[in-house]
Amino acid sequence: MEWLQSLNRAIDYMEEHLTDNITCEDVAEHIYISSFHFQRTFNLLTGLTIGEYLRNRRLSLAGQELLKREDKVIDIALKLLIRINFIVISKSWIYNISKYFQ
Question: Which residue of 1, 23, 67, 102 is surrounded by the most CB atoms within 10 Å?
Answer without folding.
Answer: 23
